[in-house]
Specification:
Strand order of the largest sheet: 4-3-5
Strand content: 15-25%
Radius of gyration: 16 Å
Order of helices and strands: HEEHEHEHEH
């Protein structure tokens, strides 16, 4: 067994591809994600993040509440070799800017348009982040 979280995800998806990994609310009830589906979603997110500059030595902020997408984003960040910093969606715009700036985050994964709008209001305070 490997020591990295991305390697452990690959091993689990290979060993039990159709086993349920997560059950989560979907707005009308509950949905399930298999380990192979998780691996594929993480792979796609990681490729997108890497295309935006995520990789070893970079930090990616996740501005989101607790949800399955947060887990997938975190796994994707780790798969690029970057580090994750977390920001609560209840933080004010100024608090978000401070956390993002202080952590040196180059990218932010935001939960929704409201969180993106909050960051746009403090854009000048987070100059390291890609536009």
């Amino acid at each position: 067994m490997s020591g990295s979280i991305p390697a452990l995800l690959r091993e689990r998806a290979t060993a039990t591809p159709y086993t349920e990994a997560f059950r989560h609310p979907d707005g009308t009830g509950w949905s399930s994600l298999s380990w192979s589906a998780v691996q594929e979603r993480v792979r796609r997110l990681a490729l997108g993040l890497a295309g935006l500059g995520a990789g070893p030595g970079t930090t990616v902020a996740i501005l989101s509440g607790t949800r399955v997408e947060w887990i997938l984003a975190d796994l994707a960040v780790l798969a690029t070799g970057a580090a994750t910093t977390t920001v609560y969606p209840s933080n004010t715009a100024e608090e978000c800017a401070y956390i993002i700036s202080d952590s040196g985050a180059a990218l932010v994964v935001a939960e929704n348009a409201a969180q993106v709008a909050k960051l746009r209001g403090v854009r000048e305070s987070i100059p390291r982040c890609a536009a």
